[in-house]
Specification:
CATH architecture of the largest domain: Alpha-Beta Horseshoe
CATH class of the largest domain: Alpha Beta
Largest sheet: 9 strands, mixed
Shape: globular
Strand order of the largest sheet: 13-14-12-11-10-9-8-5-15
Number of helices: 16
Distance between the termini: 54 Å
Structural class: alpha/beta
CATH topology of the largest domain: pyruvate-formate lyase- activating enzyme
Radius of gyration: 23 Å
Amino acid sequence: MKFVCNKENIAADIAEVIRAFNPHALEGEDGKEARLTFTREEKAVKILLEYSELENIPKYTFEKRVNLEHLTDENEVKRIVKRTAKVMVYDLMARVYNTALPYGSLTGVRPTKLFRDTRNSGAGALEYFTGDLRVSKDKALLIQSVCAAQEGYIDISRKNIDLFVNIPFCTTRCSYCSFISAEIGRVKKFIPGYVDLLVKEIEDARALIAERGYKLRAVYVGGGTPTSLDDSDFLRVMEALKGVGVEFTVEAGRPDTITFDKLKIMDDMGVTRVSVNPQSLNDKTIALIGRRHTAADFFAAYDLARKFSFDVNCDLIAGLPGESEEDFAVTADGICALRSENVTVHTLALKKGSGLKLAGYDNTYSHVDVMTDYARKKAAECGYIPYYMYRQKYMSGNLENVGYCLPGKQCIYNIDIMEECASIIACGAGGISKLYIPEENRLERLADPKGIDVYLQRGQSLISAKREFFPQVN
């Protein structure tokens, strides 16, 4: 299909609506064309949508005017016009493909943020989502439940800040992974320098937080797999974070990297929360996606973590290659039965750069919705509530990732980053610092280089850049 739009600044977002119906729809010429034309009038924007197949004769024409009479903010005008156009394109594609999508015209990462903003404006958020945006009632209720679980955990203040530490190394690279991470065996020569610079970044970030009047809410050490470092390097990073006195998560992730000694280091340094992630309890699947552990290894690592006082999160993925609905149910049943404080259910997303994508795997799996629905029901049966969610491009079934928790075990960092309601100071290659401006409900971003070699070359300038980026707040 050919998509033509005379507004380049919003064309890409609108094209995502078409890809939500068919990820390959815009990859070739098939004689079909969707043409979207915006015309600015004195007090309105006219949107004309035309669609034709084979012959150059419109078989579908729809026109709508967006009234701008009471709008003075150009950013708000852009948002309303874009949202209107997305719904128009959604309605067209629903006719073309004779189907409806669970999230309707929504293509954004954070549907909960839009739900909350709509509710705070005084409008009926549930009705707006199911009516105007075409979101299914089931997904709208899920979004509403997540927002309810976040009540009391969102604290809007310019002073609030989280600290993120990125350790972009893994023992192997999972076939679905598109993160900037490297197999640690291949980059050993960079590790000492990386840890040196990372520790300096952390120390200066903690000093900056104190000096500039910020209030630290949470610390999150992710990657990659932080526990892929050897004990001495891991200890150095943990020592730089000792005594933070807030929620402190380490994404241990790979069961084959979790040892008693590493858990003891985390416990001694004040870590409060760890992730032990199987992704699947099917050994055949685990091997297929490139992980060097078994389901038995996961259970052993989980039991080891339970010897300490950490809250534990476990990740699983719906839609992995070769897995049936029954295979996924075994994983969901096994994980929920453990009663870890958090369970995160991801839907497989195939991004550019992932091994599965490069190998030509097609994740347009028609029954992945059955898997995520099963996980949601199983989680509820076991006493879990959904407390954060987000969506990504190229997700199976155009679905979502959902974090579940036992009541009172919400992860502050996950809420802050997904709802974009706090600043984040990020250390490490690929880390993105974010300055939250509550008066305008927006973020400004500052990224560390993704490449490890470039990160090391930048050195002290990274620290200086953060000091220029984060202002005094007290």
